[in-house]
Amino acid sequence: MRTSPAAIGSLRTVGVFTLRSGLALNLVVIGRLKFEDYEVENIRPLIASSPPFSRLAAVFGERRLARLIGAAEIVIGSLIAAKPLAPRASAFGSLVAVGMFTSTLSFLITTPEAWQQRHREPKLSLVGQFLIKDTVLLGASLLTAAESLRDARRS
Description:
By secondary structure, the protein is an all-alpha fold. The protein has one domain (5-154). The chain is built from 8 helices and 2 strands, in the order ααααααββαα. A two-stranded antiparallel sheet has the order 1-2. The longest helix is centred in the first third of the chain and has 29 residues, at 5-33. The model has no long low-confidence stretch (mean pLDDT 94).
């Protein structure tokens, strides 16, 4: 199969745009959910079993901590989406997202409910399956950070 360099370039451009848009949209939408009581309930097991987050919940309370996390997610998503206007800000948002997704992936280690205990070998539970998608979002954050930094150097 022969593909022209222009077609490959177009495919890359559309792919990166879709990846950036999806990453930003996910962060904004999921951040907004943190202002709902049911989402506070949903993240309770993750926060309770994480040493740093359980300490923060003791200081701020679960509802306020969820809202702080949600506000941070909305800001991060907005920064990532701002790339056409502010590539440096977008790079910063992507790099902060790398840290955020690294911390959420740590819940796979700290949350007993992430693994099914009934099997000899480790098997992800529904909670673990929910968390494992953050590996893709982590990769998207790394890619969008690199692309934004590249474009920031050009301007």
